């Protein structure tokens, strides 16, 4: 079915009766498909909504996922009523989704804003850090037991390695011979990469409600003054570790290049960006952090970067089943870029640790 017709039908089910003008594809996210859908109200003013087709290969329980989002956004709205937030629309039978065959659709308000895939403006970076820090604070009194694990073992690095090793054995599309160098590196750092997972299992790091996908493009900024407006993409809000949110954010924002840069040798940690993000994040969270969390925060960046390299390489070996790809080697390019970044993080670990310590000292 033509996408224009499909989107009109989905919006009608969400009780939008205005004049349909068309849609724009939003080129963001490696898992779901996102569209800005434009309408004209009866008084002539334009109005847009955000419509998403949720990837049910990645999210096996999308109804549980929407329940998580409902609970979390309601909690934040109650705590901070003045804050702008995402509202999901309901169908006439009070559901926040429309299912048609394999497709799972949802619709929310469209917030006029800017997002960044790569930005070196240190004020913007610091604002992003404090937005993610504040997000954790807003949910610090949320009952973890109410959340469904939308992707079980999402940041369980040991399980990610197990999956990679099983794929290597099966070699379903004959790509393993080509990735020996990458595999060798990833296997050589396995224990260090699994530090967070092992400490979590040993009960040495506290479980919190975390975002788990803290790419800087999941923060919407005010186009006029650069302030952070709202944190979006709540699909993976689940019990997790402080280091998951900090580490993943640094992996994305502090890299000199984008996460899928084909010139992997250009990847590395920009310590100015690292400092700005750490300052913003820690000014919100340092008060409530344990010593072990502080001690492992810099290392968490390496853990999260390596974990994603493992996931990209695994998906490449499996024949690109999970991540959306542009081109046959996109996942391999991504994995190589993450490996190069992880190597640079090891080189800069002493500096990163010192910056974390200084930022904590400045915040408490
Ligand atoms: C996916 O789709 P997006 O961009 O929000 C992935 C993250 C990865 C990221 C890498 C549910 O996020 O874990 O870090 O790609 N999300 C899921 O770009 O797997
Ligand atoms: Mg996401």
Q: What structural keywords apply?
A:
binds 2-acetamido-2-deoxy-1-O-phosphono-alpha-D-glucopyranose, 364 residues, globular, alpha+beta, two-stranded antiparallel sheet
Fold and architecture overview:
The protein has 364 residues and is an alpha+beta fold. The chain has helices at residues 3-13, 62-79, 122-138, 157-170, 180-188, 190-193, 195-201, 242-253, 271-285, 291-318, 330-347, 349-363, and strands spanning 19-26, 33-40, 46-54, 98-100, 103-109, 208-210, 219-221, 228-231, 238-240. Helices cover 46% and strands 13% of the residues. The strands form three sheets. Strands 1-2-3-5-4 form a five-stranded antiparallel beta sheet, covered by helices on one side. Helix 3 runs antiparallel to helix 8 and helix 9 runs parallel beside helix 12 (349-363). The radius of gyration is 21 Å and the shape is globular. Bound molecules: 2-acetamido-2-deoxy-1-O-phosphono-alpha-D-glucopyranose (GN1) and magnesium ion. Residues 29, 213, 233, 235 line the site of magnesium ion. The site of 2-acetamido-2-deoxy-1-O-phosphono-alpha-D-glucopyranose (GN1) has 10 residues, from loops.
């Amino acid at each position: 079915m033509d996408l224009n017709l499909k989107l009109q039908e989905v919006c009608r089910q969400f009780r939008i009766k205005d004049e349909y003008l068309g849609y724009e594809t939003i080129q963001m996210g490696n898992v779901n498909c996102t569209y800005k859908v434009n309408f004209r109200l009866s008084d002539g003013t334009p109005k847009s909504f955000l419509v998403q087709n949720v990837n049910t290969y990645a999210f096996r329980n999308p109804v549980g996922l929407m329940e998580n989002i409902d609970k979390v956004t309601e909690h934040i709205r109650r705590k901070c009523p003045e804050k702008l937030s995402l509202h999901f629309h309901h169908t006439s039978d009070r559901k926040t989704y429309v299912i048609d065959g394999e497709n799972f659709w949802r619709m929310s308000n469209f917030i006029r804003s800017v997002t960044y895939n790569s930005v070196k403006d240190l004020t913007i970076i610091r604002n992003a850090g404090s937005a993610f820090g504040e997000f954790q604070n807003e949910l610090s009194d949320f009952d973890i037991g109410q959340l469904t694990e939308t992707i079980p073992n999402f940041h369980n690095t040991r399980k990610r390695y197990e999956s990679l090793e099983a794929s290597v054995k099966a070699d379903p599309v004959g790509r393993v011979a080509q990735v020996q160098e990458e595999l060798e590196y990833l296997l050589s750092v396995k224990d260090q990469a699994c530090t967070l997972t092992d400490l979590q299992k040993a009960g040495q790091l506290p479980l919190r409600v975390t975002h788990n996908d803290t790419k800087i493009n999941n923060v919407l900024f005010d186009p006029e003054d650069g302030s952070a407006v709202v944190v979006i993409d709540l699909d993976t809000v689940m019990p997790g570790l402080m280091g998951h949110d900090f580490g993943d954010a640094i992996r994305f924002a502090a890299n000199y290049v984008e996460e899928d840069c084909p010139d992997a040798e250009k990847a590395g940690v920009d310590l100015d960006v690292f400092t700005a993000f750490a300052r913003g994040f820690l000014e919100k969270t340092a008060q409530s952090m344990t010593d072990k969390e502080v001690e492992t925060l810099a290392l968490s960046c390496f853990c999260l970067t390596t974990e994603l390299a493992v996931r990209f390489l695994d998906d490449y070996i499996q024949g690109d089943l999970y991540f959306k790809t542009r081109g046959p080697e996109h996942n391999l390019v991504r994995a190589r870029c993450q490996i190069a970044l992880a190597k640079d993080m090891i080189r800069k670990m002493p500096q990163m640790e010192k910056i974390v310590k200084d930022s904590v000292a400045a915040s408490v």
